[in-house]
Model the fold of this input.
Amino acid sequence: MLGYAIGALLYDSLGHWLITLYGLTDKVETFRASYAEWGAVIILVKGLTPIPYKLVTITSGFAGYNIWLFVLCSIVARGGRFFVVAVLLNRYGDVIRAELEKRLGLWVVSGLQLLVLGFYVAYRLV
Done:
């Protein structure tokens, strides 16, 4: 919630100044429209990755994304990520802990690729 507030509140002062400085004023509304359409997907996917989630929270606040939908997606994504890790650690113990610590990024990317491939195959079959 703090990251969301930072993104929402600092846009009017620091954010607006930076956007004007870089000449991106005309792209802000396009970004916000895209985030309004794809924000839930972005939040859910990024919430499952080891990428710092603070980036998602600040961006969601900046984009003016619906706060209740943001909270719901955050609970699902972050809860899902920690649930999967907890199940793996409970079932496989120290063996999986060492593997996750060494190659977490690889496993996350592989899982996302498999998920996207599954959606692509399902789309082609329907």
The mean pLDDT is 80. DSSP finds five helices and no strands in the chain. The helical segments are 2-21, 25-48, 54-63, 67-92, 94-125. The radius of gyration is 18 Å.
